[in-house]
Amino acid sequence: MAQMRADVLVVGGGLGGVAAALAAARAGRSVILTEEFDWLGGQLTSQAVPPDEHSWIEQFGATASYRALRNGIRNYYRRHYPLTERSRAWTDLNPGAGWVSRLCHEPRVAVAVLEEMLAPYRGSSRLTVLQPYRPVAVETDGDRVIGVTVAHRDRDERIDLTAPYVLDATETGELLPLSGTEYVTGFESRAETGEPSAPAEAQPMNMQAVSVCFALDHVDGDHTIDRPAGYDFWRDYKPDFWGDRLLSWRSPHPRTLEIVERSFTPNPDDDPLAVNADQRLNPGDGNLWTFRRIAARRNFTDGVYGSDITLVNWPMIDYFEGPVIDVPNASWHLSKARELSYSVLYWLQTEAPRPDGGTGFPGLRLRGDVTGSRDGLAQAPYIRESRRIRAEYTVVEQDLSLAVRGSHGAVHYDDAVGVGMYRIDLHPSTGGDNYIDVGSCPFEIPLGALIPQRVENLLPAGKNIGTTHVTNGSYRLHPVEWNVGEVAGLLADFCLARGESPRAVRGTPSLLAEFQDRISSAGVELRWPSIAGY
């Protein structure tokens, strides 16, 4: 079996993994980065989810390298796309003019920019990227991870990887069970966490829905796909709390749980520069077409785009029939999630009510070329909730809930290593729960949430940090995942340079202060200015 060694091993090439690899390589470390899918970037690319970000993202509240990613995406459009002069001059260019984010864009552009950011370190051989590989085994010695075995996705080939520091940046915390690292899944009990939104008893198999996203445009002709095998089930499926069939324009409002009806108007003749994507003012999901639109045709010169392109990550594709973590039939559930997405598309093309009183939009065309997949859907499922380490410090709802903290703001952590902001946003879950959507204060990321209670050299670098089921709803989004990964990469470098453990860095005031100075100089923000949450 082939063997490779580096200073830092990052398993998982999502946003957290890329940020970790970039940070460690910039610090001069040799790095191995593995990724299961064809694209680096995780939720931003292979999962095809446009950035979910807070209202101040253009001013503050993100690391300098995350800001460089966002600027790189805009500049890529300016360099390579035939933008109108008006859009080209738009400082905060939003290529898709989607309402969910101030920066909605095609996934492939993010892939190009991420690769551009990593290119110098790949060229110098400081960074080795292994794709497509997934972890299949972990070797441990007491409280340390000694090595990770990865297997090629498409052929019988395995590689043994070793490094003094191993970072788990997989979407579901795959290294945690393989290494025996203590972790939690699903809902913790209120007795354990004291959280107002937690149940009386723990529900480890009660996890947020997964979604298989896809891209659409709307052009002349009939582009109706074959009727999915399970279409009848999904067309008639009516969850108890939904207020209608899942495949309908009606669903619960996440914040109020009132049953509301959304609209769907492909290619509205709207002005991209008039879109105000501010989640404080408007969640933006009134017209599902513009909600997560990733290419607004009016941003480009006439005739280049025959249609807008929209990204379908809507309530009706949430699959909550069963979890996909720590169950023997995970692959079956993932296949049913894909079937649901195809069924939603078929319903849109054939039976969805139109504003003119008719039914179906046969001009909707599946854009697998946009998501880089042969089957037309996103390469990977959108995983909202990972396994989470049992950490030295676990972030709980009362640390950041606006209802609990009010004008006091989120809890201040002495060991802060970053910032984030998003409502506590939980989608319907496998336990039959409706949305949980709670206002949040702008919050900090504590270093204690990145340190396992026992294992010494395994660090989480994504959604697998020490949050609860509830607070994961705030910490799972793009800027926070990047921040976590970047800090994990910098922490591995810091510990290697000083011969100290992550636990010692957190527990020694002088080391902690030095590390915080180090990450601050790298562009990691540790505190928020005085602003109110939403």
| CATH architectural group of the largest domain | 3-Layer(bba) Sandwich
- Helix/strand-derived category reads alpha/beta
Q: Total strand count, please?
A: 23
How far apart the termini lie comes to 53 Å
Principal-axis shape equals globular
What is the beta-strand fraction?
Answer: 15-25%
**Rounded to an integer, what's the Rg over CA atoms?**
22 Å
Strand order of the largest sheet: 4-3-2-8-23
State the helix count.
Answer: 16
Which parts are unreliable, with pLDDT below 50 for 5 consecutive residues or more? none
How many strands, what sense, and barrel or not for the largest sheet? 5 strands, parallel
Count of discrete structural domains:
2
The CATH class of the largest domain is identified as: Alpha Beta
Q: Using the coordinates shown, work out and report the CATH topology of the largest domain.
A: FAD/NAD(P)-binding domain
Name of the CATH homologous superfamily of the largest domain:
FAD/NAD(P)-binding domain
Provide mean pLDDT, rounded: 97
Helix content: 25-40%
GO molecular function, one term: L-aspartate oxidase activity
Protein name: FAD dependent oxidoreductase
Pfam family, one: FAD_oxidored
InterPro entries: FAD/NAD-bd_sf, NadB
What are the main properties of this structure?
globular, 4-stranded mixed beta sheet, FAD/NAD(P)-binding domain, 5-stranded parallel beta sheet, 534 residues
Question: Can you characterise this structure?
Answer:
The protein is an alpha/beta fold and 534 residues long. The protein folds into 2 domains: 2-82 and 107-187 and 385-522, FAD/NAD(P)-binding domain, CATH 3.50.50; 210-383, no CATH class. The chain has 16 helices and 23 strands. It has helices at 15-26, 64-80, 85-88, 107-123, 175-179, 190-193, 231-236, 288-291, 330-350, 368-371, 397-400, 402-405, 472-475, 478-498, 502-507, 509-521, and strands spanning 2-5, 8-11, 31-34, 127-130, 133-141, 144-152, 158-162, 165-168, 183-184, 210-211, 214-218, 250-252, 259-261, 293-295, 309-312, 318-319, 364-366, 388-389, 416-420, 424-426, 436-438, 443-446, 458-460. The protein is globular. GO terms for molecular function: L-aspartate oxidase activity. This is FAD dependent oxidoreductase. It comes from Micromonospora krabiensis.
